[in-house]
Amino acid sequence: MTLQTGFIGLGAMGAPMARNLARAGLLTAVWNRTPAKAAELAKELDVTKAADPDDLARRCDVVCLCVSANADVLESIAALLPGLRPGTVVIDYSTVSSETARLAAAKIRAGGGDFLDAPVSGGVEGARAGTLAVMVGGDADTLEKVRPVLEAVGGRIAHMGDVGAGQATKAVNQVLCAGINQAVCEALAFGRALGLDLDKVIDVVSKGAAGNWFLEKRGPTMIRGSFEPGFKLSLHHKDLNICREMAQNLDVPLPLTEKTLADYRRLMAEGHDEEDISALLRLWFQLDRNCQKN
Ligand code: NAP
């Protein structure tokens, strides 16, 4: 039986994920806070533009969310609850705290449905290609029930444990992203000071042991001062605050996360919050005394 699926939150990630659900023949309805985005996508994909989140829930067996932060997930859950049908599964692809996932799950389960936290990694490129890494927390049987929905957006689906375990895994991922961003910026600033052709550096080191997704995808644009998102710096800042809170509770030090939070705060104060996280290079190029300021 086809799972009638709805999508709430048609931003940089949500819109291409919804497109892949439509390609898989699963998408029934969409809703977005800014209505024009929903109207446009509903027309493009020939699906229903729901009047509001509870109208969307009324039409669907599976409701997907991809919104910004903790409060936005809880607001969206409250808004869809009146329309929730018994057995409906809500999948939250947003990056939020494990605590928010548990609060959301309690509300959905009390309403007769079930909830999976399913944060993703792979950027807008992965969202477009349907190859995202999906880190799932929740009931294993529920995951199996909605597997086709997860597989329409993901190349790797991993069940990490109970509700909240997906978000905990994503927190680990975000700490890694902070370290990789810092390492790539430090290395590129060093390479520039050495007078190397950075396009050639990126090309050759990407093929070796230092190769990584961020360098390959963002390296060529960041060295040209192009910081189109991608992944907005303000969103990674939000994620690293979640990581910091989780680490403080466990008394685990996260020095790279702390440095990155401080650097992002500086960039946000300078008005770069809507840029891609690779805008971190602005600070590294400015700090490199052998190079001209950007
Ligand atoms: P985005 O482009 O800023 O889109 C955010 C979406 O959430 C928009 O559709 C926005 O609606 C909606 N929204 C925000 N607050 C809302 C609220 N209170 N109620 C209803 N809708 C609300 O962000 P994104 O890049 O798609 O990221 C979405 C989530 O995925 C975030 O949690 C992010 O951390 C995570 N993520 C992003 C990436 C990436 O590379 N971009 C990768 C992995 C995970 P409007 O259109 O009205 O603003």
Largest sheet: 6 strands, parallel
CATH topology call of the largest domain: Rossmann fold
Low-confidence stretches: 289-294
| CATH architecture call of the largest domain | 3-Layer(aba) Sandwich
Spatial separation of the terminal alpha carbons: 56 Å
Arrangement of strands in the largest sheet: 3-2-1-4-5-6
Q: What structural class results from the helix and strand content? A: alpha/beta
Overall radius of gyration: 20 Å
Supply the CATH class of the largest domain. Answer: Alpha Beta
Shape estimate = globular
Listed once per kind, the bound small molecules are:
NADP nicotinamide-adenine-dinucleotide phosphate
Calculate the mean pLDDT score and round it: 96
Structural domain tally: 2
Give a brief outline of the structure:
The chain is α/β, with parallel strands linked by helices. It folds into two domains: 5-161, Rossmann fold (3-Layer(aba) Sandwich), CATH 3.40.50.720; 168-287, Orthogonal Bundle (N-(1-d-carboxylethyl)-l-norvaline Dehydrogenase, domain 2), CATH 1.10.1040. It has helices spanning 14-23, 35-45, 53-59, 70-80, 98-110, 123-129, 140-145, 147-153, 165-193, 198-205, 213-222, 233-250, 255-269, 281-287; strands spanning 5-8, 27-31, 48-49, 62-65, 89-92, 114-117, 120-121, 132-137, 154-161.
Describe this structure in words.
This protein has 294 residues and is of the alpha/beta class. The protein has 2 domains: 5-161, NAD(P)-binding Rossmann-like Domain (Rossmann fold, 3-Layer(aba) Sandwich), CATH 3.40.50.720; 168-287, N-(1-d-carboxylethyl)-l-norvaline Dehydrogenase, domain 2 (Orthogonal Bundle). It has 14 helices and 9 strands. The chain has helices spanning 14-23, 35-45, 53-59, 70-80, 98-110, 123-129, 140-145, 147-153, 165-193, 198-205, 213-222, 233-250, 255-269, 281-287, and strands spanning 5-8, 27-31, 48-49, 62-65, 89-92, 114-117, 120-121, 132-137, 154-161. Helix 4 (70-80) packs parallel to helix 5 (98-110). It is globular, with a radius of gyration of 20 Å. It starts with a strand and ends in a 7-residue tail after the last helix. The model is unreliable at 289-294 (pLDDT under 50). The structure holds NADP nicotinamide-adenine-dinucleotide phosphate. NADP nicotinamide-adenine-dinucleotide phosphate is lined by residues 9-14, 32-34, 37, 66-68, 72, 75-76, 94-95, 120-121, 123-124, 230-231, 235, 239.
